[in-house]
């Protein structure tokens, strides 16, 4: 075989190309790495801010100390439950509604599709949203985490676009054999749509796992329904308030100072624990994510 040699300009381009992506990857990964090394390093060194690039004084006491936070386990189960249930219902709804939107015989299809798109661009704001949730009885109610996230317009559009790329002959042949819309959807469309369904599942899982606003606003009178992000937010506030007292010159006790340093470390640890599940799940879904997002974005 004839060997091919790169031109000097190609070598230079490849060098800077690889350098750019290496730096970009480093910038994306370093925040998680920084959090992790601070959670397993000596707490006194973390307090002094000298842990930057590698861990020192290795230990796992911070992760074991999370057991002392009485609401953390409950918050984890609340967040896990809303992520699994909410994401599952959203994927099923997006799949079926996206399929219906491809059917020309659907009543007022264009109107409903445009109505769906409009909701992506117009938002009434937090106060009307809160009042609506209150009138529906979804304040201090676990269903507030599930019901509003079932219909996701952007995900429905992705699914609709993907399904339109599936050969219509498959549906026609099944229809001739007497298959109903439901049978066609469950036996043909759903299995063939796994890439795009996995893609929107990632969107839904990340959104539910990281959601804070609904817990912060709707669950004020029900601490048992606080999410992990809400618990982390409370620790951030506690750290900020104690830090503000120290900076203002206010006399604080040694116990308060120790609490500030301990809260800072626990804040790092909770942040790491909060991020780990998504970091673990994403590699297994990446191949579906890449294929689904590309194929789902071909048509408008």
Question: How would you characterize the overall build of this protein?
Answer:
- The protein is mainly alpha-helical.
- The protein contains 13 helices and no strands.
- The protein has helices spanning 8-39, 43-48, 61-65, 72-100, 109-121, 126-135, 153-164, 168-176, 181-192, 194-210, 213-218, 228-247, 254-295.
- Helix 4 crosses helix 7.
- The radius of gyration is 25 Å and the shape is globular.
What tags apply to this protein structure?
300 residues; mainly alpha; 13 helices; 71% helix; 0% strand; globular; disordered C terminus
Overall pLDDT metric: 78
Given as residue ranges, the uncertain stretches (5+ residues, pLDDT < 50) are: 296-300
Q: Tell me what portion of residues adopts beta-strand conformation.
A: under 5%
Global morphology: globular
Helices and strands, in order, run as HHHHHHHHHHHHH
Number of helices: 13
CA gyration radius, whole angstroms: 25 Å
Question: How much helix, percentage-wise, in residues?
Answer: over 70%
Distance between the termini: 44 Å
Biggest beta-sheet profile: none
The overall strand count is 0
Structural class: mainly alpha
């Amino acid at each position: 075989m004839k060997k091919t040699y790169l031109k000097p300009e190609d070598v230079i381009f490849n060098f800077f190309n690889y350098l750019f992506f290496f730096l970009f990857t480093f910038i994306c990964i370093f925040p998680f790495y920084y959090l992790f090394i601070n959670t397993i390093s000596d707490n006194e060194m973390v307090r002094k801010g000298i842990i930057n690039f590698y861990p020192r004084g290795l230990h796992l006491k911070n992760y074991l100390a999370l057991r002392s936070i009485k609401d953390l386990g409950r918050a984890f189960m609340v967040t896990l439950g809303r992520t699994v249930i909410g994401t599952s219902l959203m994927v099923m709804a997006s799949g079926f509604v996206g399929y219906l939107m491809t059917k020309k015989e659907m009543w007022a299809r264009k109107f409903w599709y445009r109505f769906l798109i409009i909701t992506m661009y117009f938002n009434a704001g937090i106060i009307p949203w809160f009042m609506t949730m209150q009138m529906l009885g979804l304040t201090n109610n676990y269903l507030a985490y599930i019901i509003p996230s079932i219909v996701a317009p952007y995900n429905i559009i992705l699914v609709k676009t993907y399904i339109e790329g599936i050969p219509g002959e498959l549906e026609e042949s099944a229809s001739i054999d007497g298959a109903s819309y439901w049978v066609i959807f469950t036996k043909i469309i759903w299995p063939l749509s796994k890439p795009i369904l996995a893609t929107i599942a990632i969107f839904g899982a990340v959104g539910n796992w990281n959601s804070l606003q609904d817990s912060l606003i709707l669950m004020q009178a029900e601490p048992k329904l606080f999410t992990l992000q809400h618990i982390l937010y409370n620790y951030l506030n506690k750290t900020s308030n104690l830090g503000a007292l120290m900076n203002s010159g206010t006399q604080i006790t040694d116990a308060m100072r120790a609490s500030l340093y301990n809260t800072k470390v626990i804040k790092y640890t909770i942040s790491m624990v909060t991020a780990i599940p998504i970091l673990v799940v994403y590699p297994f879904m990446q191949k579906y994510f890449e294929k689904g997002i590309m194929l789902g974005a071909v048509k408008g």
